[in-house]
Design a protein that fits this description.
The chain is about 30% helix and about 25% strand. It is α/β, with parallel strands linked by helices.
Length: about 425
């Protein structure tokens, strides 16, 4: 597979750009692999890539029941940040952000990561004090973060609703290195990189059963036949509970909820930042894509669901949040909306851990954090699978933390999955 470069673009121009190689192969599954990752979303593809690149494991397959990146990878609002405070989350997300900063060069593929600032508005002195605590913790642990007063915020983003907002704006907490990326480009980049390392990406291959012998997984039954595996990793987001039960492990401390996202018709450049606010029951985040569409979202649908379609109550809620903070969007037309199936854990934090089955590994429970975590998730999940022990950064991302009472509740919302948005 050829490497992308300015010279390659110039050279292929003489043939009308018709001689490019395929991005990745479409192989037939082998009878057995050293490692099988279930789920060709961002986490699964990143895991396969780092398993091959960092740990030299080459006989790897990634199984996807549909098409590559057709699940949550293509159904989110693409925000990347590391403004977390709790031990465990703090270093994990910062490492993930550092990987994001070099990802286009690493993969030789433009993932369109734009570091445009993450601006979290606050509307009361109490919110400002809470933000100061969080961002001081970030600064003490080598992460950028700052607070803007109202005058600074007005200079940076002049067209927010400062005059008659339902919830008056008094400032913002800002992480400059944060921003957004293009979700499908990240999936394609990791797929191309994994394929270059010899990974088999097998699409339209749904796992229908898990074969266990002597306390280990020996094979996966799929819609494309039986596939043997020495090690298996689950990275299937909202469908984690389904596979967990398929493996005969009972229930997980996870609920599957749908989270809707929206994009408007294209507009001229309007918003250079990612803007977020949450107050009085509202929860809203918005940015502008490179195509000009306003990309935004809000709360989960609070009922449990595996659906990937939205509904009108959330459309109304998010539209009201948008116009409350940016009245200039009042007559902008909604182009489309969709849902991702979120795997919401009991404390709002993820699992990257071994399971009760010796050679089965779990990556799930990402709540709202899945997209931004993709590089770090793949990095540490690959390390866990290769070395059969967790890195110290993720040692508390295990299922046993609830038994030990070492929860990672970033939001302080308690043991209710739907409240950890």
């Amino acid at each position: 597979m050829s490497r992308y470069s300015a010279w390659a673009v110039f050279k292929n121009g003489f043939s009308g750009q018709k001689n490019w190689d395929r991005q990745w192969r479409d192989p037939e599954p082998k009878k057995e692999y050293d490692v099988v990752i279930v789920g060709a979303g961002l986490h699964g593809l990143a895991t396969a890539y780092y398993l091959a690149k960092n740990h030299g494991i080459k006989n790897i397959a990634v199984l996807e029941k549909g098409w590559l990146g057709g699940g949550n990878a293509g159904r989110n609002t693409t925000i990347v940040r590391s403004n977390y405070m709790m031990p465990g989350n703090r270093y994990f997300y910062e490492h993930s952000l550092k990987l994001w900063e070099e990802l286009s060069h690493e993969l030789n593929y433009n993932v369109m990561f734009s570091q445009r600032h993450h601006v979290s508005l606050f509307h009361s002195p109490a919110a400002r004090d809470a933000a100061a605590r969080r961002y001081n913790t970030m600064r003490l642990t080598d992460t950028d973060g700052e607070l803007w007063d109202l005058d600074t915020l007005k200079k940076e983003i002049p067209h927010l609703n400062y005059n008659n907002a339902r919830f008056p704006i008094i400032g913002a907490a800002v992480q400059r290195r944060a921003g957004s990326a293009r979700h499908d480009a990240v999936a394609w980049g990791y797929a191309r990189g994994a394929d270059r390392q010899g990974v088999d990406i097998i699409q339209n291959c749904e796992v229908t059963g898990v074969t266990r012998e002597d306390g280990k997984v020996t094979a996966l039954e799929t819609s494309r036949g039986r596939i043997g595996a020495k090690k298996v990793g689950f990275a299937v987001a909202g469908n984690t509970s389904r596979l967990w039960q398929m493996a005969g492990l009972g229930n997980l401390p996870i609920e599957s909820h749908k989270l809707q996202a929206f994009v408007s018709e294209p507009l001229k450049p309007l918003l250079d930042h990612v803007v977020v606010y949450g107050v009085g029951g509202a929860h809203f985040y918005i940015s502008q894509s490179d195509k000009g569409g306003m990309v935004f979202g809000g709360d989960l649908d609070w009922y449990k669901s595996y659906a990937q379609r939205g509904n009108l109550p959330v459309v109304q809620d998010v539209a009201e949040c948008a116009t409350a903070i940016m009245p200039c969007l009042g007559r902008v037309r909604l182009l489309r909306h969709w849902s991702g199936v979120m795997d919401m854990s009991m404390d709002g934090s993820a699992f990257i851990c071994k399971t009760p089955i010796d050679n089965l590994y779990l990556n799930g429970g990402w709540n709202y954090g899945g997209f931004k975590a993709s590089p770090g998730s793949g990095w540490y999940f690959a390390d866990l699978i290769a070395n059969d022990r967790p890195d110290p950064v993720i040692e508390h991302f295990d299922l046993g933390r609830f038994k030990r009472g070492v929860i990672i509740d970033e939001r302080g919302a308690g043991p209710d999955p739907k409240l950890h948005g």
